[in-house]
Amino acid sequence: KLAVVVLISGSGSNLQALIDQSLHGAIDVEIKAVISNKSDAYGLERAKSAGIPAHALSHKDFDSRDSFDNALQSLIDQYNPELVVLAGFMRILTEDFTRHYEGRMLNIHPSLLPKFKGLDTHKRAIEANEKEHGVSVHFVSAELDAGAVILQAKTNIEANDTPETLANKVHALEHKIYPLSVHWFAQKRLTFDNGKAFLDNKALPTTGI
Ligand code: GAR
């Protein structure tokens, strides 16, 4: 099974989707550890309930971004993961950190990248009068939310949608495409070469889930 470390900052519903699918054998993944930069993240409880080592490593205990990322890297690497999965991990990462995990770190971002990088994506999509919105899984690169896209899923924005209703719709999509992307990586069907993502040696992204 693919050894994975998951990084979170909050609720951890994407973590839960990965836990559920790995426990059911739907994906060939073993979550070795969960690390949160927030000690009160509910996702840490989800990890403990599943018997997964859960760590809180607060960025507030470090005096620079570099020192936090170094400590985070040391903690992650104690578990020798083949893949690092960012699941609602709300930290900007240093270039050194992203380079260390190049081609073996995924992120999920709640927009149809390259649109709406950064925060408040649902509100911004509504305010921009977008007809469609969605979510993207991508390899992590040094530039924020700019790594090679692997898989996207779309939903319509209806006239009565609010940032909250849209977030709920997007979350449901996330829980499908993130485990699937990780599964592809576990099966070695998903690869990374020279800044680009490939599925079965064909250039990604694939859209349409
Ligand atoms: C998800 O919607 C994820 O796409 C987003 O945070 C949420 C975490 O939810 N990630 C980002 O915004 C990354 N910049 P979860 O804790 O319930 O999985």
UniProtKB/TrEMBL annotation:
GO CC, sorted alphabetically, is: cytosol
Which PROSITE patterns did the record assign?
GART
Residues annotated for (6R)-10-formyltetrahydrofolate binding in this entry: R65, M90, R91, I92, L93, N107
Tell me the active site: H109
Give the EC number(s) under which this enzyme is classified.
2.1.2.2
Sequence ranges assigned to domain Formyl transferase N-terminal in this UniProt record: 4-180
Record-stated family = Belongs to the GART family.
Question: What is the stated purpose of this protein?
Answer: Catalyzes the transfer of a formyl group from 10-formyltetrahydrofolate to 5-phospho-ribosyl-glycinamide (GAR), producing 5-phospho-ribosyl-N-formylglycinamide (FGAR) and tetrahydrofolate.
Q: What is this protein called?
A: Phosphoribosylglycinamide formyltransferase
